[in-house]
Amino acid sequence: MTDRTARLERSTRETKISVDLNIDGEGRFEVESDIQFLKHMCETLARYANFDLKLSAFGDNDHHIIEDAAIALGTAVKQALGDMPVERTASCILPMDDALVMVALDLVDRPYCDADCPDNNYHHFFRSFAMSAGITLHVVQIRGFDEHHIIEASFKALGKAIYAATRPRDKLLSTKDAVKVN
């Protein structure tokens, strides 16, 4: 199997983000950010996806840091996947206390995101992640009232679904074959 890793830095006037990702990891993480909830959610995503993740995310305000961390992480996932055939689609329904969330995704290069999320910054995280990873992502809140639980259940479900979708397979799962852009 080829090495499915990515390393990148994203620096703007507003943020400085670095990502080191191994999608065939063991769920190890080292996340640094002044935003403790972002740190917790990225650690949760890495653990549930079984990805090894080293992420550093700092900047001028929460919105910019969360957005750029999602863009960098999505870009790293896309780079690490390369062209190897994978399961491609997966879903997960995950309970966490009062919250029940479903995540369904397709790793096809048709970016789309529809995410129920009670916090604008983390809604934006899911959308920015999906757009930069080039995936179709649906996050559906089935029930719940605690915002922390809803968001955390969403990250856990995303982790479990992306783990299943990124598993290697022998043949490309498509009736169209791979799309090549010249």
Features:
182 residues; alpha/beta; 4-stranded mixed beta sheet; 4 helices; 8 strands; 31% strand
Radius of gyration: 15 Å
> How many helices does DSSP assign?
4
Helix content: 25-40%
Backbone structural class: alpha/beta
* N→C terminal distance: 27 Å
Task: Please count the beta strands (DSSP E, at least 2 residues each).
Answer: 8
Low-confidence stretches: none
Strand order of the largest sheet: 1-2-4-3
Provide a descriptive summary of the structure in words.
The chain has 182 residues and is α/β, with parallel strands linked by helices. It has four helices and eight strands. A four-stranded mixed beta sheet has the order 1-2-4-3, covered by helices on one side. Strands 5-6-8-7 form a four-stranded mixed beta sheet. Helix 1 packs parallel to helix 4 (147-165). The longest helix has 20 residues, at 62-81. The two termini are 27 Å apart. The mean pLDDT is 94.
Give the arrangement of secondary structure elements:
Elements (H helix, E strand, L loop, with lengths): L4 E7 L3 E8 L6 E5 L2 H14 L2 E8 L2 H20 L7 E8 L2 E8 L5 E4 L4 H14 L2 E8 L3 H19 L17
Parallel strand pairs: 3-4, 7-8
Antiparallel strand pairs: 1-2, 2-4, 5-6, 6-8
Explain briefly what this protein structure is.
It contains four helices and eight strands. With 182 residues, it is α/β, with parallel strands linked by helices.
